[in-house]
Write a structure and sequence with these properties.
Distance between the termini of chain A: 27 Å
Distance between the termini of chain B: 60 Å
Helix content of chain A: 40-55%
Largest sheet of chain A: 4 strands, mixed
Oligomer: heterodimer
Number of strands of chain B: 14
Largest sheet of chain B: 5 strands, mixed
Strand order of the largest sheet of chain B: 2-1-3-4-5
Structural class of chain B: alpha/beta
Shape of chain A: elongated
Strand content of chain B: 5-15%
Strand order of the largest sheet of chain A: 2-1-3-4
Radius of gyration of chain A: 17 Å
Amino acid sequence: MPLLAERFTAQAAPPRDNREKLLERAMSRHRYSGDSLIEVLHTAQELYGFLTPELLTKIARKLRLPPSRVLGVTTFYHFFSLAPKGEHSFIVCTGTACYVAGAQGLLETLERRCHCKSGGTSPDGKATIAAARCIGSCGLAPAVIYDGNIMARVKPDQLNAELDRIGVQ
Amino acid sequence: MTVEELEQKQADEQERQRGLENRIYCCTAAGCVSSGADRLKQALTDEVKAQGLDGKVEVCGTGCMGLCSRGPLVRSSKDDALYGNIEPAEAAALVRGAAEDQEKLAPFRIDTTAPFFAKQEKIVLANSGFVDPEKLPDYIAAGGYGALARAITEMSPQEVLEEIKASGLRGRGGAGYPTGLKWELVARQPAQPKYVVCNADEGDPGAFMDRSVLEGDPHRVLEGMAIAGYATGAQQGYIYVRGEYGLAILRLQAAIKQAEREKLLGNRVLETGFQFRVDIRIGAGAFVCGEETALIASIEGKRGQPRQRPPYPPESGLWGNPTLINNVETFGNVPAIITKGSAWFSAIGTPASKGTKVFALAGKINNTGLIEVPMGTTLRTILFDIGGGVPEGGEFKAAQTGGPSGGCIPAEFLDTPVDYESLAKIGSIMGSGGLIVMDDTSCLVDVARFFMEFCADESCGKCIPCRAGTVQMHDILHRITRGDCHEKDLKILEELAKLLREASLCGLGQTAPNPVMSTLRFFREEYEAHIRDHKCPAGHCSFDGKDGGGR
């Protein structure tokens, strides 16, 4: 089901010229109000996949906010990412139910295979791994969101198989 | 739409549904979808076409049917049966529903007289599994928006307030503040504009009740908010939803659009002078935003940091205006109270805790899923009758309620009735409704460490007791799980807990020590075994000095 987690994953970028217009439209819908900063950042990240300093500066100017406030808000919330994401994404739910069911082991498997810590991207850019606080699928613990789809009752071997399939080094 | 038109629409849709030979409801909540509900629904839809039953048999998606562990779930209106673990291959038989098909389907049939169903009482989840959350007529056919119509045409705002007060409804977000009193505080404020905010930032790990309500019955929450708007004199509502809940956001957006189109929300609600709009605000992944003043800051586009209270939001909330903040489940109760009356509602539950509570059952339990029980039901009934007990081979050790602000309840308190006061008495809290069962393979020291790590990570950093205290407490717990610890550390742990409780700015820091304190109270010997003997009674922690916490 892509709906639940599509906001987590780097999306296929729409044509370049369009994105600027879409972002502008989002800001104008909120009448360039500073209060809409979080909404605008959501839109920007959906369009661009991650938030660059240029993008943030531009948003600050348009919403007439100090850049410090924009950066402060961006870094406060886990959702916003300042770095590009890998081709594939694995989000391990580390909510209580998943933790009790062994989510930590899944995360360790991913970290070992992708040579990066949770929140990072493998050096070959193939996979981004992250831990989510609770995706609300506790009945399926431990759960992993793999490219937007929920995998239920995951075993480390399943992750290894997927990593092999996408060719993570 | 006028009130008469609403009634007409309800009658029409009920008539139409009665005219169908069969209506097949597919649970399309997250649990069932990941067990293949989408494929099943598609197969059923195709099968209806193939058998030429268009217009006679209807397939629709619904919200959570509760028994997530048996997903995908399907309900058929013809024989009023519930089927679980069902494969697309059975679609033909389900659609036909003839006598020989019944036989074939028998192994998939779920006994709906089993305690899992019989011991529940559904108010907030009444429609979940029975209406299509994407179709407004479905909700209207089930009596939807009737409470709003009744409130704004037959009752004064004061009467609505009195009704909610008389019902004894208390906030379902965890703290249990009387809802009627909160509404009255906002209603009394002379300042305008006022706001109604629905807190759907369900951040507790292990809780998925609000999400299920929003995904399964979004109009119910909107209706509850509109009634609150009428009673308090607010014309604008906001729903603050977690960014992670993509489907809930889509369903809410669709529901708001439908309701506005039919004049059930907007400028002239039901063609009367009452106006109420609802906007969605999407969270961005900060647990602390569940705290009301932090939530307000976040809606205002700022860092979600709490502020000193008082003034409380009913006096000074969003942009300094009077603001009513209630949880999803609280609003979900409101339409039923207005429709059926406060006397009906207050007859359910215990003297101090009225009504029902939704719980999300998870962890080492057979029937994982979503349940709703009258307040005062014992934990034993919830976990063993409804939940089906711990899976074979395990032994019940503790139940965790209230997430990172709650506590662990050991076996000797299984007969505690679940209500606000009884849970507080044994060092836990009602919380928002996450209920996680742990068996003898779960190390409670590590669970306490897990929650402390969570709080340290989610602390917003504004006040020092929480920012530094959670890190210090986590450090000690981490060392205990690695066997690198002294007896005196337990004392420091307790001192820090006291400090956090008394000196933190908001609920996050004040309640962060709860999991530690409750496990220390009931399972102190586990801590001591870790410290003295370098032994983990659950066999979970390893003490070879390797980095990596409880593993």
